[in-house]
Structure formats: C-alpha cells, structure tokens
C-alpha cells in the first residue's frame, strides 16, 4: 500500500496568536539576540525545573556538546549512553572528542538499565548521560547510586522530558547538568533551540562563555567558544510555550491514559509502561507490536496516520559501526517498537481512529495467507512469551521444520541475513531474537517448544541449531 500524506500527524506544535504577538514585540524592540527575552526565558525555565541556572542554546545538540565541555569532558574520556536514543546523544560525546560507550536498556521503560553500567565503567569513564526516553525519567535513584559508587557524574539528556518528573521532582534537576530540546516534535518548541540547566554556578558560567565565543567582555575571548546563541524571537516564543506547558501535558496525559486503556484490549500490542515514581511527558507514545511491526507501520502510513520507529539503535548506525557489542534488549525492543501520533491537539475521534487502525493492522498481520501460511512477515521468538503449560511434545512433527526457514536478524539496518546451518554453528553471539519468516501456523507452535529444549532462559543460536538438527 502506498503512503498517503498523513491527516493525523505524529506531532503538532501548539502555536497561536500569543506566539505571533510575542515575536512582534521583539521586532518592535529592535533587540534580536542576546537580550531580555533570553534572560527571562532562562529565569522562568530554571524556576519551573527547580534549578538555579539555565542557559539557552541554538539547538539541543549544541546544548549537549556545551554541557559536556562545561563539565570538562573531552578527548580520552568515556561517557556511558543508551543506544535507544536520537543520534545526537552519542554524536555530542564524539564532537567533544570523547567516546560514547553504549549501555543496554530496561525492557519496560526503554531507558538506560542501571544494572548494565558497572560492567562498562573504566578508568576513563567520566559520566553517565542518561536519556529520558519519550519523556519518562529514567530510574534516577538507581542511576545516582551507581554513579556515586563509581565516582562519576550523572548528566541528563532530558530533550524529551520538559515537564516530566520523578518522585515529584522535575526531570533535569537530578544530574549535575541536564539538556532540554525545543524542536517542533517536543511538547514545547521554539522552532529549533535547547537549554542546559545546572545547579553549579561555575558550570553555568562556562556554558555562557562557550555559547558566545568565549567572550568575557567585548572582544576579550578567554576560551575557545562558538556562536551557539538562541535568538530573541525564539526565546520570546519559548516563554509563551512555557506558560502553555501544563495545559499541553494535561491534554497529552489524558490522551495517553485513554489510549492505554484502549490498547490493553488489543492482543499483540503492549502500551507504554510508566514506571513507579515516574511522571512521563508522553512526548512519544511508543507501543510494542509482537508481530510484523513493519507491516503494521506501512498499514498506518497508507491510511494517513503518521507513525514512526523512534529510534533505530544508535550503536548500529554506520557512524558508530563496530564500536559496541550486542545490546540484546535494545535490539529486540527496536525491532518491535512503534511510536503513534500523540500531540496535545488530538481529538477523541482521531485517537479512536489511530487505535482502530492499529488494531486492524495487527489483526491483518496475523492472518494466514491463502495456502495456510502466514504472510511473509517476521515473527519473533521471545522466551518471555513461553509458558511451560503450552508445551506439548506431541505437537512436534519433524517435517514441519526446515533449517532454511531460520534467519537471524542482527539489526544491521538492513534486511535480515539468511543463516545456513553451517552459519548457525559459527554464531555464538546470542542471546538474540530469532526471526522465522513465513512460518506456518504449526511452526508458530513450534516456537513454544524451543526454550524447553534448550532449557535456557534465552534462545541461543547454537542451541537452536542443535534443536533443529535433532528434530529435522
Ligand atoms: C534524546 C534526544 N537528544 C538530543 C536531541 C537533539 O536535540 P535537537 O534536535 O534540538 O538538536 C533530541 C532531539 O530530538 C533528542 O530526542
């Protein structure tokens, strides 16, 4: 099905006459940069996020780089980041000459897994840069503890978390510094823009220097700086947007709650989970689709509903190729995740349409094609699906199993590679999801048998090969 111009957008900024009036006032003042609007936006944003300092930037990406530089991070240092994020989290680390070290995520919240961090800490590790995926704060208590145990800093990439909170405290107020972004997909926008908040006066001072050519007074340049300034027009828009924030969040939270209830009744779809103590901004509304995620995405796009995969893992992008070991949870989640439209202007009818279309797409994806075979869509084996009581050895017939059906997808941003039986025996990198294209319905049942045979909490490639050889 061809894609249509979407009539339900993934994100839609809430902009109106108030923003236009604010920009007009700036024009009338004649001060277009470095003026009172930036100063006021910084004050108001800091107050809203319960921190003492805020420094605006031209984008979230440069704000991240400035935050790292202001923390003294540079060549030779390592920063632990999740791979389930927008590329800028990791490229900012690279831009300042440091090395991003990718950590796996929690399978429920898609935020960095604190338990994965100790194994990645080296003598060069300077910080954990956590990402509040979809606006849901990461497990901040556990992260603060692990960082303090290892003597490293916690920094927050709170790009998506304006207005989010953890144990009632605003996201962005936990780490030494935190960055927020104002691109148009975020809950509040200045077109482009970012801000760093911090409780440290010295860090704030360095941020201001970095933003403005390292200039301490006119044409006196103390450090290597940049022009990373936000304009006065953008700051004026940001101030109006900040006043709208609570209304935007309330509408999004109501929509997300409705969608959670509705999708709880759709088999094969897992609505987003919000962890205890966390209050998400629902900047994204990301579900997991058990079967045929790509087909479901194509179906939604063909019906004018703009869904997207947020995000293909960063450690598998060509720019970071070969620089990370496998991250099984990240890769598994990335293969099943789908972000649905979730903005503050969605009407009840549009929410209903999104849910109905998703349900229809999921149902269609699971239907067997003529001839009794499920249409050529991937299906994933995950041991967590398996219940021992489902397993009946009498279901298994050797003739159902063909080794050539088995592929392993390493998520190299391309089509899955076919793995021959010889290839299976060479592969030792599992655990990884096993994908079975074009399975028969019987073969689907077969999947339930696999963990029993391997007697393992994860399905490893060599075990799968041994199993196939045994029964084929
Ligand atoms: C998690 C995360 N980090 C960093 C950024 C970069 O922000 P910007 O696009 O404002 O440069 C984004 C933007 O989408 C983001 O989502």
Write the layout of secondary structure elements.
Blueprint: H1 17-29, H2 36-48, E1 53-57, H3 60-70, E2 78-82, H4 88-95, E3 99-103, E4 125-131, H5 140-150, E5 153-157, E6 165-166, E7 169-170, E8 177-181, E9 194-198, H6 201-211, E10 215-217, E11 220-221, H7 232-263, E12 269-270, E13 278-279, E14 285-289, H8 293-302, H9 328-336, E15 337-340, H10 348-366, E16 380-381, E17 407-408, E18 417-418, H11 421-426, E19 434-435, H12 441-454, H13 461-471
Parallel strand pairs: 2-3, 2-4, 4-5, 5-8
Antiparallel strand pairs: 1-9, 6-7, 6-13, 8-9, 10-11, 12-14, 14-15, 16-19, 17-18, 17-19
Helix pairs in contact: 1-7, 2-7, 3-4, 3-6, 7-10, 8-10
Bound molecules: pyridoxal-5'-phosphate.
List low-confidence stretches.
Answer: 369-460
Bound molecules: pyridoxal-5'-phosphate
CATH topology of the largest domain: Aspartate Aminotransferase, domain 2
Second CATH tier, the architecture of the largest domain: 3-Layer(aba) Sandwich
Strand order of the largest sheet: 1-9-8-5-4-2-3
Rounded to the nearest angstrom, the distance between the terminal CA atoms is 37 Å
Report the top-level CATH class of the largest domain. Alpha Beta
Report the sheet with the most strands, covering strand number, pairing sense and barrel closure: 7 strands, mixed
Structural class call reads alpha+beta
Q: Quickly count the helices.
A: 13
CATH superfamily of the largest domain: Type I PLP-dependent aspartate aminotransferase-like (Major domain)
Strand content: 5-15%
Shape: globular
Structurally, how many domains make up the residues? Answer: 3
